[in-house]
Amino acid sequence: MNEPERAETASGAGTDILRGRFLGVPLLSALAFVALDAACQIAVPFRKPFEFLPYAASVLFAASCWTLLWLAVQSLPRALAWPAAGLVSTGFLLTLASSFIVSRAVGNYLTRYDLAIIAGNPGLLGDYLTSYIPWPLYLPFAGAVGLTLWLWRPRHACVRPPARERLAVAAAATALAAGLSFPVRAHRIPLRAAPDACAFLAAAQASNAALFGPARSRLHPSPDRIAPAPVGGPDVPNVILLINESWGRARLKRFGHPEETMPRLRAWIDAEPDRFVAFDRAYSNAPVTDLSLPSLVTGVAPWEPNEKLHRMPLFWGWARAAGIRNCYFASPSRAEWAGVDRFLLSAPGPDRTITARDIPGVAVNDLGKDEMLGVRALESLIEGTPPGERFFAIYYSNATHYPFQGSSPRLPDMPPIPHRYDRALWIMDQVFDRIRASLGRAGRLDDTLLVFTADHGDFSERRRAVARTENAYEDVAGIPLMLRLPKRGPSADASRRERLRANARRNVSNLDVLPTVVEALGLDADPKNRALLDELPGRSLFQAVPEDRFLFVTSVNAVRGWDLSAFAILWKDFRFVSSTLEGDRLFDLAADPGETRDLLPERPDLAATFSRIVAETPNLAAQPRWPARPAP
């Protein structure tokens, strides 16, 4: 091509900028995320109010960011432009896939908290991809990477606009992105926004905390926790605390589901009615693991100060005070998520820990390995405990976490079960049976206290257009809670068991688990330990629980800051719910178990009572609350 032709081509390319031809790729990139948003809303319609102007601003903001990336790629020398195009292409597809995954899982698009977790543990990204993208899709994904790379490929200099025009467009795109970022940020929550706009804002917020506010305090090691007073005895039982991820009530026959989804557990309960106590009105204290799990293992409520959470003893400290020298933690999941490993497993932590990092194979469900490999690890710990010594074990399952483990090569006789969550329940049913059999082989079944509970529930039926992470309704807050009592120790006392069974029909909470286990270990006999227990909001279920107690559920605190929030207060049959997306509502669970009729306008007396409780609880009072929005 001679010089006049090159000049003419370059001039034509410069004119093409004004007609949008040269900028077609960044515009197509932005439109791809608009299409993704529409698909997400069709697949799982979450309640994010839509307003045209803020949404259009988010699309323009994203298009400006793609334009800047496009111009950066096209302005680099070719030796650098191709690797840059590859990075942008891969990032584009990963953002597209992760936005869809996060939307399906929690009803939001990417936030700075998601990026902070991945940045702190890059290996989590690989687990997410292998878990959420089935291997048959790897080849199409590679093809999509190739196609995107072809679109983003460096253009020859003769077809690029002159540098002066590229700089002008870059300046305009920068100004547009900067000008729109603040209104988009203000309107992104609670209004809907384009997924790529959320991702670009998340990246900016995560990398510039000085501009967008300091990072929230997180879970961290705390070696100077209070040590309970030692109280040993010959009748101290072994303890296994089974914390099941996203184990809700909705698909259990005991709570009204028409089919028996966990037949082995049901048969075990029916065979030992004098040993099992199941609570009909048990609740988690948070809809998210990084609040509920730390709260469960310390007894400190999520709405209490973070300093107290890191000061009070963990279960390991209580177990050692009872003379137990074998403390175990086993899980098929990765404990690094949100700092749980630093909080729960650092010194003074368990004596033995087995997590997904120690289990061979790839992730099969969210961040978890095959559940059957996880329970095998627990079996090895139980059966490896020296004869005559006691143990305290926490098993944190993962099969019922979204997207739910639907199969295992170690369960070839699994029956055909249509519902994926039910398949996960069937797998957990095998897990519980394996634990029972392991205790039997070790000769420890009769002297072990088993506690079955959950970090929170799940709403696999998607009955509400509110994501689980800001959902304080019965679907998510209501959980199973069961105890299988040993034949010896304080829990064998007849009066204690009578009070325990009376509490089975009252509102109880995961905050009651630690005080209950502490009493079962006989540690409440010491005055220092009783003083520690008095600092906790939960109560031992071996003692009478007041029928008119208030229970709380919250989705945010000092450990977990989020753009959306929700909390609930339970009192007798009533639930008061307040959330960013829906405002304040009140339900009578006895008359309206589906929580469809808002009683707040009809019961000003109860509205005043709950408003007073909110005002007296700093964590709840500080949460943003919007006027109730009409149901779609």
Characterise the protein shown here:
This protein has helices spanning 3-19, 24-43, 52-75, 78-106, 112-120, 123-132, 138-151, 163-188, 195-207, 209-212, 263-271, 289-298, 306-309, 315-321, 340-345, 371-384, 420-441, 474-477, 494-503, 513-520, 527-534, 604-616, 618-621; strands spanning 238-244, 276-278, 282-283, 326-330, 352-354, 391-396, 448-454, 478-479, 482-484, 508-509, 550-554, 566-571, 574-579, 583-588. It is an alpha/beta fold. The strands form three sheets. Strands 2-9-7-1-6-4-5 form a seven-stranded mixed β-sheet, with helices on both faces. Strands 11-12-13-14 form a four-stranded antiparallel β-sheet, with no helix packed on it. Helix 3 packs antiparallel against helix 8. Mean pLDDT is 84; it is low at 1-20, 209-217 and 627-632.
